[in-house]
Amino acid sequence: MTISIWRYSHLALAVSSFLLLTLASVTGVILAFQPVSEKAQHYRVDGFNQITLAQALPELRKLYPDISELTVDANQFVQIKASDAQGKNLVAYVNPLTGKVLGKPRPKNEFFQWVTDLHRSLFLHETGRFFVGLTAFLLLLIALSGTMLIIQRQRGVKRFFTRVVRDNFAQYYHVVLGRLSLVIIIVIALTGTYLSMSRFGLVNTNVISPKVDFDAIRSNPKVNPEDIAIFRNTLLSQVQSVEFPFSEDVEEYYTLKLNDRELTVNQITGDVLTEIKYPTAIIIANLSLNLHTGRASGIWAVILAIASANILFFIYSGFVITWKRLANRTKNKYNVADCRFIILVGSENGSTFRFAQAVHNQLLKQGEKSFLTDLNSYTAFPKAEHLLIITATYGMGEAPTNASKFATLLAKYPQPNKIHYSVLGFGSHAYPDFCKFAFDINNLLAKQEWARPLIDIQTVNDKSPDEFSLWAEAWSQQSGIQLAVLPELNSTKSARYETLVVKNITPLTRTNGTFLIRLQPKRKLRVTSGDLLAIYPANDHRERLYSIGFVENEIQLSVRLHEGGLGSGFLHRLQPGDAIKARIINNEHFHFPANAPEVVMISNGTGIAPFLGMISQNTQKISCHLYCGFRDGASFEIYQDIVDKNRALGKLTRLHVARSREGEKQYVSHLIDRDAKFIASVLAKSGVIMICGSLAMQKDIIELLKSICQHQTGKGVSFYQSHGQILMDCY
Question: How far apart, in whole angstroms, are the C-alpha atoms of residue 474 and residue 564?
């Protein structure tokens, strides 16, 4: 029984990870030759391990008075940054004793760089890094479960390396090579797992920056650099880098980054001003990097290549063993899902589900077995004959949130049977990327061997029931199943409309045609700032959504009038006292975070509307910072009174306004870049960043946040998004 548990565990782990493990092993074999090729360059000097800083630094500074930095890489090549005799910037490998230039750094080999990116992240950025880290952890479990199988096979730990009975080629060498490379594979798996944990902040690798007490710096007695004690006692082999003083001023000092600590040294007296020992986690991370890549030793790199090649053999031989074992067993039928029809939906706000539900209900009424779910729930469907994909497109041609994993899942779960598929895209011709995500899905399905198109991809503009009906008719003709979707749509159409009375509407601003409209509900509503208001300007199926700012029990919208705009034109023509029918859509993911210690709001243009409502509702007076961007001061005037009122009440802590057409001509992204340290500190203490406005602005801000997180917090943007610290509602 025990051996069955280990065997099935070993098999399950191998099966679940063999694709990524194969990729990691192939790239690992290739990358093992990178340190070998680097060490073939003759930039390392003889007797390197005996050279001290006292021997190297004075000579280098004498030959290169403007030298700014010395670094020692994993190959023990000494590189300097300085100026040559002509005053030009010099970056070169040098002999640390003589200063002779041995060569200049070459650009990284593009092929090795490409393979490295594939090995580390599968070109999927943080998502890919996660799967690679998971694969390393699974490899560790595979190695441990394999060890238990060998122990049980050999009947004890003491007999671990005794003779192996040879049943067949695959089985014999699976065990023999497994024993020989076990320790190396465990090292690869452990170090890979640790590096991934370090990457995602699961182990603390933060280093405290040294703080020099300038008041305590001595300017005498003066000591020659070659006589400074710390220089005489420190070997170059212990050094990562040395930053030189910019001038001879007493407040300029050396910064030494060693393998286990960081020091600052008075350039005049040689006093050690500060000394910070690195956390154990950093030392382990550096050791893990050396062991995982082989960068510190060419011999170890070759050993890693052999071990990676062995992993490929283990994958092959393991499946041969399993196949032969299964071939000798009685084949049993598996229990599978019953549905012939699978309907997958991609929708950001849920409106597309209504159309999918109509198809689903029609199939059920006709006695068919149908299953409705979102695209992120895609998996293998053993009895499926028809796959219907009904999806919207979000943002700039991107996947809706509930469909973001579909491409990965499609590659992971090929269908066991031939399936007819149909793709229907929802969108609006008002956007340049009309139904782009639907076309992307259709292209992906066209490449699958198991997929057969039933009809060509079709699209629906502005949720048109007529266009949807045309698709249903075409699908019905090919499938032989009649879909009467229009009655179904009418019966499921939401009847929950609210009557809203126009209380006030401001004149258009002079520069960008923006106006505020305040609406009074006829009855008390459960609504909060950040929710969405759906209006129907033409009194038909066409729906327009606006982000709500709820101020003093009134719904406030900030609207920019577009020429020929259906929604904005309708709202602008309203007069005080007019009543409209509308629908409130709960947008809970973009509500004010009442439990956050600090909130930063970032907007441009009309995206400020929900934030004004949130600030007004900030009765707990949580520290709140508003960054907003407008064309000029006139564009901001219509919001000035409410902003000033909330600042006076202590509901808004700080206001930062960027104007792109006057003054310094800044965008809101410039303000965020300026306050990068503050933004990082908000995230570090579990604060929340909220973004509302245009998709172009959102893209710029997210790129900035990626850089801020990478350089100042050590965690990726996805970490803060997954923890609800970065909230977005852009259009």
Answer: 33
What are the φ/ψ torsions at residue 333 (nearest 5 degrees)?
-80, 140
Q: When comparing pLDDT for 637 and 599, which is higher?
A: 599
Query: How far is residue 288 from each of residues 138, 164, 188, 539, 596, measured CA to CA in Å?
Result: 17, 33, 9, 65, 37
* Angle ∠(443,446,447) on CA atoms, nearest 5: 100
Q: What is the DSSP string of 637-688?
A: HHHHHHHHHHHHTTS--EEEEEESSSTT---HHHHHHHTHHHHHHHHHTT-E
- Residue that wins the pLDDT comparison between 431 and 18: 18
Single out the residue of 151, 105, 119 nearest to residue 6, CA to CA.
151
| Per-residue model confidence (pLDDT) at position 4 | 47
Lowest mean pLDDT among 69-78, 102-111, 642-651: 102-111
Q: Please tell me the distance from the alpha carbon of residue 485 to that of residue 494, in angstroms, as a whole number.
A: 16
Coil, strand, or helix at residue 222? coil
Distance of CA 531 to the CA centre of its chain: 26
Paired tokens of 141:
């479990």
Within 506-648, strands assigned E span 514-521, 532-535, 544-547, 549-551, 554-560, 579-585, 598-604, 623-630
Q: What is the mean pLDDT of the chain?
A: 85
- Given a cut of 70, whether residue 547 has pLDDT beyond it is yes
Nearest to 598 by CA among 495, 513, 684, 717: 684
498-505 vs 579-585, strand pairing mode: antiparallel
**Alpha carbons 687 and 254: distance in angstroms, whole number:** 37
Strand, coil or helix: 241: strand
Over residues 693-698, mean pLDDT: 79
Burial class of residue 354 in the structure, from the number of CB atoms within 10 Å of its CB (0-12 exposed, 13-18 middle, 19+ buried): middle
387: its two tokens: 């796959």
- Helix segments in 32-109, DSSP class H: 33-39, 53-63
285 Cβ neighbours under 8 A, 6+ residues apart: 194, 195, 198, 203, 205
Peptide bond into 537 cis (omega under 30): no
pLDDT at residue 482 tops 60: yes
Selection from 406, 408, 380, 585 nearest residue 498 by Cα:
585
Mean pLDDT across the stretch 703-725? Answer: 83
For the chain, helix (H) and strand (E) counts, in that order, are 21, 26
Range list of H helices, 32-97: 33-39, 53-63
CA dihedral defined by 605, 692, 579, 493, rounded to 10 degrees? Answer: 140
| Residues 654 and 645 sit within 8 Å (Cβ to Cβ) | no
All residues at 6 or more sequence positions from 382 whose CB lies less than 8 Å from its CB, including other chains = 334, 336, 337, 416, 417
**pLDDT for res 348:** 61
State whether residue 634 is helix, strand or coil: helix
- Cβ proximity of 214 and 29 under 8 Å: no
Strands 239-243 and 598-604: unpaired
Query: Are the C-beta atoms of residues 595 and 620 closer than 8 Å to each other?
Result: no
Q: What pLDDT was estimated at residue 334?
A: 30
